[in-house]
Batch of 3 targets.
Target 1
Amino acid sequence: MTFKWPPSRKAWLLQLSGTLVLAAVVVTRSVRVAIYSARTAARLQYIQVALEFYRREHGCYPPQYLTDQRGRPAHSWRVLVLPYLGYEELFQRYRFDEPWNGPHNRLLATEMPEIYRSPFLDSTSTITQYVGIAGTDTPWRGATPVEGDELLRGRDWESNPLVWFVEAANSDINWMEPRDIPLEQALVGIDVPGGIQSNYSDGLPAQTLPGLRMRVPANTPPDELRAMFTVAGGKDNAQEAVPPSVDGKRSSPDVEHVPNQAEE
């Protein structure tokens, strides 16, 4: 005689199995997002330190881009800081006598440094989500470089930090392309149509001057976004801020090790 579960017992087991599977999926996704969040934070900090080393050597931060002889954007700041990220050899092979997408330089696109690739993107992607907020009153103002003192002068950076660059989920920018997110787009809002999209539900990952990490909430109003993204947004503050300094030679920043995609 074959034993049969009562219909109610079978239904209960099916429901329990479905609940357990759903719980496993939720936990797995939460763990993955936590790992990705740690990687994003580490990569933002690496880029921050590279920019500081550039300033230490050149006396200013890199411009958003270098122009060609006709004044057109030709080379991104992400290329200019390659030596300070440990990619001196790649930097030496990049040619400044042709644009970023010229016949020689375009072949370098697939050698994109892992530091410029969001953990949410495929390992073969040449798109970077690590971009600046570009505008005449931001740290990224075209071909004009800026000094750290200028960016922080008269700003209470503890209560009103200046966002330097972010991880934008909707970026379609090649890592060598001399293009970033326009200020006008950033002021539309976070996680709204036409604005900046985030990979995370708790806000937009951002790196600030002088080296603080933060999440910009999705419900941040435009006036507060302008204060975060523009130099003038902090001019009402009377307190003088001391610009950050980086001691020593080119090296990795002091951050907790986060395994890269190859180590998974």
Note: The CA atoms of residues 198 and 213 lie 15 Å apart.
Target 2
Amino acid sequence: MFIRTERSVKDFMLFYPVVTTLVIINLLIWLLTDFFPTEFGRKVLNWGAGNNLLTLNGEYWRIFTGMFLHAGFMHVLFNSFSLVLFGPALEQMIGKWKFVFAYLGAGLIGNIGTYFIEPTSPTFHIGASGAVYGLFGVYVYMMFMRKELIDQANARLVLIILVLGVVMTFANPQINTAAHLFGLIGGVLVAPLALKHAQPFSIYRNVLKKQNRQSRSSAQGPQFNPDRWKKRRPRTEQQKQQLIWIVLGAVVLIILLRTLIFG
């Protein structure tokens, strides 16, 4: 469910177009505003960064635009990695537009919660962390209210990473704690609507989607498939467990690196 089994970036983009688009948007805006800090990039950052006091004075768009801005490489890397890891399964389960609703809805709730906690704060805050925690909120709701959608192994993985994330949230004073917590709550709140008619994640739906794409391409003319003689061996249960621990270790490492750099 959370193990990436796509054979190429092209496959990933085909199976999960919304996650792909969100990651690309985050990276492009980060390049514009941080990696290549041009005058225009600085204007975009100053115009879009979350700021409760400016929001109080009528600049309400900051509640939304702050979700797409990031401070530094590790910041955008962590959020993009989390989105790539935990977003695809949910996008397949609920569909593209419901995923957009869940992601943006939770992110907005996170920033609105930040605003109401301290509406006169002049501190700037940016990042997609509230929206990412919203995805965890959807999974938490799933674990208790829609258990048929997630197995125990993946539920444990979500729970472990969520606990680690919450601990790191309180351990680092530079993190917008309110956005994380309210984003998590926002995910739980939007979950009943987002998970309506949801189906369990299945790798075979991706296979079918790719076959349909190839069938349409074949109808337009003959094409050579270099993988036609390759047969993929199914992973054993032990291999799946090892992959889960590898993913967990990678997440923990990135969280620790982020804490050390921003702490």
Note: The mean pLDDT is 86.
Target 3
Amino acid sequence: MMRFIVPSAVAETKSLLAKSRRTCYPLDMREPSPPTDIDIIEKRTVFQGYFRVDAYTLRHALFDGGWSGPMSREVFERGHAAALLPYDPILRKFVLCEQFRVGAYAGGMDPWQLEVVAGIIEEGEAPETVVRRETEEEVGRTVLDLWPVQRYLASPGGTSETIYLYLGRISAIGAGGVFGLPGEHENIRATVMGEDELKNLMDAGRLTNAATLIMAQWFFLNRERIRAKWKE
């Protein structure tokens, strides 16, 4: 299949590469202050494997005054993550990941998930560093600019995991192929799609993981603002 590369898009990409480490748009993603209305009676680790499970005995303040009785809860500890939706505002195309997910299989969903780029935040690592690295490893693209979107709790009833979300400006020229680190059992297909295709998947309920669905919804709610900011 023939590929037609628009000269202006190539020039745009070269210009952006020269300033690809620019500062993110401001968004408060700082750690909140520790709560004062929770009493931790006991905390212990009951499982340590690839992930960890901690058991808590605690009580908390009640809305109508006073304190709850002691309760026991287990918390799944898997660390925190950062995710990015790669977007080319010139070609108006996204580059998404398709890969096998055992949790989706165990949950009775399609195990071949269509996803945004994502990675675990290691100790002392900034989420911005994670999404830049993972974008190169998972879809072979360089992040030209970052737009912080949101930090959210993956499932606050049972895990401490939070996910930082970003929109990332990339060039989709020549995008596609198979990526990932074999040593981490990654086999990722980079999939290029236009705005209409992603919206149709979203509207049809075909985006079945939270980070991808949230980012798609946010993009289409803010599309005109994004285009205005990244029209240069």
Note: The CA atoms of residues 147 and 175 lie 21 Å apart.
